[in-house]
Amino acid sequence: MSNPVFENSPYFSDPKKNRQGAGAGTYQPAVSAQQVAQLEETFAAPSASAVQAGRLTYDDVIIKTAGMLALVITSAAVAWFVFPGNVLVMTVGVIGGLVLGLVNAFKREPSPGLIAGYALFEGLFLGGISWVFEANYGGIVLQAVLATFATFAVTLALFTSGKVRVTPKSTRILLIALIGYAVFSLVNVLLMVFGAVDDPWGLRGATIMGIPLGLLIGAVAVFLAAWCLVMDFDAVKRGVEAGVPRRYAWSAAFGITVTLVWLYLEFLRLLAIFRQ
Description:
Number of strands: 2
Distance between the termini: 89 Å
Oligomer: single chain
Structural class: mainly alpha
Low-confidence stretches: 1-17, 19-24
Number of helices: 9
Largest sheet: 2 strands, antiparallel
Strand order of the largest sheet: 1-2
Shape: globular
Order of helices and strands: HHHHHHHEEHH
């Protein structure tokens, strides 16, 4: 006895078993004309799109990223207008953003709720710290926002044009530079906390040949953040080409948002030091 799956299929069954009138010399085809037409229509139909197949698309990433930024901006507006300069709100924002940022970074599967929560907490911190900078340096927030999105646009244009590409060598160099910058930032914070330096910017307030160290470090940090954006774009490109599930658009949006937040804060600090 043959496999019933194949036996009962009009496409795989033996045509000899469908013959009628053995003495008449004629037989009924195993596949009817209607079935043949349906089969031809199936083969002629266009293949399923990435959306229909549930695969990641650039539109998914764009929509999710725009939604994340909208949450950040909304939360920042609340902190700016409802709790201007409130240290408690900024503290809650920075701690909540840090915790959820780490959780989302190490989760294997994206969680839309946790990612949205990160955006809300991060917005509270950005709104509060931006209000403080704006109170001391009028117009600086608008400048930082414009600089951030201008850098994003230029970086995206360079990547899509093929003039900038991620290579294993550049990835290794970036990783080393990021570790070095993280160590410097940690040491600087510790020196400021324990009163080892009097300048409000810590080591960034030191000067080299009359140029504040903060400007040099800030320029390097902006470059590192911009290159991280290139790596984000490259990761999205590889994900789309590999046909990963659509739910990973949340992961891509989270990564891009984290980089943009970092880039904005670096511009904010760089402009403040430049004004001094």
